[in-house]
Amino acid sequence: MRKYLIFSLAIMLMLFSLTACGSSSTQDTVSAELGIDVSSGEELSASDTHAGFHGDGVSSVALSFSDSNVLDEIKENKEWKPFPLDETVQALVYGVKDETSSIGPFINDGNGNPLVREIQNGYYILIDRQEDQETDILDRPSFNVTVGLYDTDTNTLYCCTLDT
Question: What is the pLDDT of residues 29-38, one digit of tens each?
């Protein structure tokens, strides 16, 4: 009986440990995606359409910050660039239009509307997760990118992923 009790306790402990290790917060996920510590952020919104066998979809998270710690970290990181957005990020997040054509936004709500509100001042990062990075992102038949946008006027961070 004692062996059975010890065995049962050991199994329960292992199961508890495995489930505890598998849980992560939105802030943990965004920190891992963008390479900065966003643990102090308050979640404003989150959406994710990734599903199915291939994992295609769009996700977007907005986090608000009450201090400048994240902004300070972004400013020190050479991967983050100050606004204005380059053409690729502009097309991915908001779309680009001219007299004869339009492209994007690719990170949208499924109806063609951008998931990120218009930002005037801030910083951004584009992380290309595609295996073949030889071609320009907008010339590829599929996208695997993460875009981070930090709005310095509202202290809001947006983390968006696009997988097609």
Answer: 999 999 999 9
